[in-house]
Specification:
By secondary structure, the protein is of the alpha/beta class. The chain folds into two domains: about 120 residues, Leucine Aminopeptidase, subunit E, domain 1; about 325 residues, Aminopeptidase (3-Layer(aba) Sandwich). Helices cover about 35% and strands about 20% of the residues. Strands 7-8-10-9-13-17-14-15 form an eight-stranded mixed sheet, sandwiched between helices. Strands 1-6-5-2-4-3 form a six-stranded mixed sheet, with helices on both faces. The protein has a three-stranded mixed sheet with strand order 11-12-16, with helices on one face. Helix 3 runs parallel beside helix 4. It is elongated and about 80 Å long. Bound molecules: ligand BES, manganese (II) ion and zinc ion. The site of manganese (II) ion has 5 residues, from loops.
Length: about 500
């Protein structure tokens, strides 16, 4: 979709749709609505609002024809509830306009505020709302229609702050959609080598360096836990390290992602009902790739690394077994308990690698535990860190991005449940607090780095749409990570 800034007036823009947000049914409560109502003549807008029962509730959409009173053909009013008059309304506006566009090809948006944040949120909303996963449709199910272009009506289209807002909105919106598409891709096509190739190809376009290790190189490096998980699969694993390193960066953040392109459970096989969605088990990797690509597009003056361990978890003849013991990259030995707890093994090696990179923070995203979904529901991610400052900063970034996180405890009382009688560590601890014991296991491999684990098992992939999150792969996580990086820059400026 083409998104541009325009100084057209809402009266003269020739878009198919002229879109405006509203928090109530009262036209005279909002200056933009009042002006629009006047241009439409008489009581046309107020009557339509009344007749259609429009109240301004979030997500309500009212479409009416402009009947030649405006250059645009249609007017669309989007309910934004209590966000009326705030930049957050721009995201709802963009989202619902994109969703409501069937035959309409172009839209012009009246922003709730004439500022960079509204421009950014409108762009994010438009891109997110227009997302469809249609790669595998043929014939009549091939995509038709949808919005092709959108103008954001502003007072100064050359204002550098507004242009930056548009660039940020586009970078984040598109990175979210990239993450969605990776998650939605079927596991027979999106194998670990395919995931790594995608990361390397996209990185190159943006001046991001990408190092990809094949199985022989992973063996040479000594990532025996990643290799253990890979044993039951006939497809090779990959290890990926991407770097966005702008000149003069004084901060560095290392993101780590779980890249299980399919998780059957291994020998501890999942029941069919739990296995059906397990192509989503590389969502952490998809988020991680999305974040580094968005940071590069925004040219954030901060070093951002992406470290990904990728494999399938399958039950082939050579599959790893409960009772096996393997050494990790950092030398600690791990006794395998349940082969379905594979994510923490892959992450253990990736974290042991990441902690050596000298970042200010090491942050992983992983679809790690069903227990986290039991604790928080499917729309909220679990946040684990022993570092209060880091956790607080991240929760603040989540507030700005509109994603839902909840901090759960790194409860040291549970750590002894990870003790093994025959190895340094058991790889699963107490099932009560299963999301916590998984986080504690990971922390064993993060060394002294300022570490945070984000369990995105719930919100990465949904059976049905919820708020801004679509059905299927959601791209959840990218927006908050980028806001967190921007927050680091602001705190640096103080
Ligand atoms: N990939 C799953 C976790 C998951 C579950 C992600 C549902 C998305 C939706 C993970 O590898 C897993 O199987 N975890 C086990 C751990 C257990 C065996 C200790 C779980 O949560 O049951
Ligand atoms: Mn599993
Ligand atoms: Zn898994």
């Amino acid at each position: 979709m083409r998104i541009s800034l325009s100084t057209d007036s809402f009266r003269t823009t020739k878009a198919d749709f002229l879109a405006v947000s509203a928090g109530t049914a009262h036209v005279d409560k909002d200056p933009a609505l009042t002006a629009l109502a006047k241009s439409m003549g008489g009581t046309a807008l107020a009557d339509a609002i009344k007749d259609e029962g429009f109240t301004g509730k979030v997500g309500q959409v009212l479409k009416l024809q402009a009947h030649g009173r405006l250059a645009a053909r249609w007017v669309i009013v989007v309910g934004v509830g209590k966000d009326a008059g705030k930049p957050a309304a721009a995201r709802l506006l963009g989202h619902h306009v994109a969703k409501a566009s069937q035959r309409q090809r172009s839209a012009a948006l009246i922003l709730p505020v004439d500022d960079a944040e509204s421009v950014r949120q409108a762009a994010e909303g438009l891109l997110g709302g227009s997302y469809r996963y249609d790669t595998y449709f043929t014939g009549s199910r091939k995509p038709k229609g949808g919005l092709k272009s959108a103008e954001l009506l502003v007072s100064d289209a050359k204002d550098p702050a507004l242009k930056d807002g548009l660039l940020a909105g586009r970078a984040v919106g598109e990175a979210v959609n990239v993450a969605r598409t990776l998650v939605n891709a079927p596991p027979n096509d999106l194998t670990p080598p395919a995931l790594a190739d995608f990361a390397a190809t996209e990185a190159e376009k943006l001046g991001v360096s990408a190092m990809v290790w094949d199985k022989a190189q992973i063996e040479e490096a000594g990532m025996h836990l990643l290799l253990a998980v890979n044993r039951g699969s006939s497809i090779e694993p990959r290890f990926v390290h991407m770097k966005w390193e702008p000149e003069g960066a004084t901060r560095k953040v290392v993101f780590v992602g779980k890249g299980l392109t399919f998780d059957s459970g291994g020998l501890c096989l999942k029941p069919a009902k739990s296995m059906i969605d397990m192509k989503c088990d590389m969502a952490g990797a998809a988020i991680t790739i999305g974040v580094v690509l968005a940071a590069a597009r925004m040219k954030l003056p901060i070093a951002v690394h992406a470290v990904i361990g990728s494999t399938e978890n399958m039950g082939g003849a050579d599959a790893y077994r409960p009772g096996d013991i393997f050494p990790s990259l950092d030398g600690k030995t791990v006794e395998i308990i349940n082969t379905d707890a594979e994510g923490r093994l892959v992450l253990a090696d990736a974290l042991a690698y990441a902690r050596e990179l000298g970042g200010d923070y090491v942050i992983d995203h992983a679809t790690l535990t069903g227990a986290c979904m039991v604790a928080l529901g499917q729309w909220r991610a679990g946040l684990f860190s022993a570092d209060d400052e880091l956790a607080e900063r991240y929760l603040q970034a989540a507030g700005a991005s509109g994603e839902a996180y909840w901090r759960l405890p790194m409860d040291e009382e549970l750590r002894p449940t990870l003790k093994s009688p025959v190895a340094d560590l058991k790889h699963t601890g107490s099932a009560y607090g299963g999301a916590v014991t998984a986080a504690l296991f990971l922390s064993e491999f993060a060394g002294k780095s300022r570490f945070m684990h984000l369990d995105v098992a719930g919100p990465s992939f949904l059976d049905s749409a919820h708020g801004f999150l679509p059905q299927g792969g959601t791209g959840f996580g990218v927006g908050t990570a980028i806001r967190f990086l921007e927050g680091l820059l602001e705190s640096q400026a103080d």
